[in-house]
Amino acid sequence: MRILTWHDKDAGGGGQRFGPSFYLETDYVPAAVRLEAEKAPLDGDMEVDIFDDGVSIFDDHASFSSQTAHKGSLTRTGDVNTSVSLAQAQTEEELAANDFTGDTLEKGSWVTCKILNARGAKNLTVHLELMEFGE
Question: Which CATH number is correct for 2-132, 1.10.10, 1.25.40, 2.30.110, 2.60.120?
Answer without folding.
Answer: 2.60.120
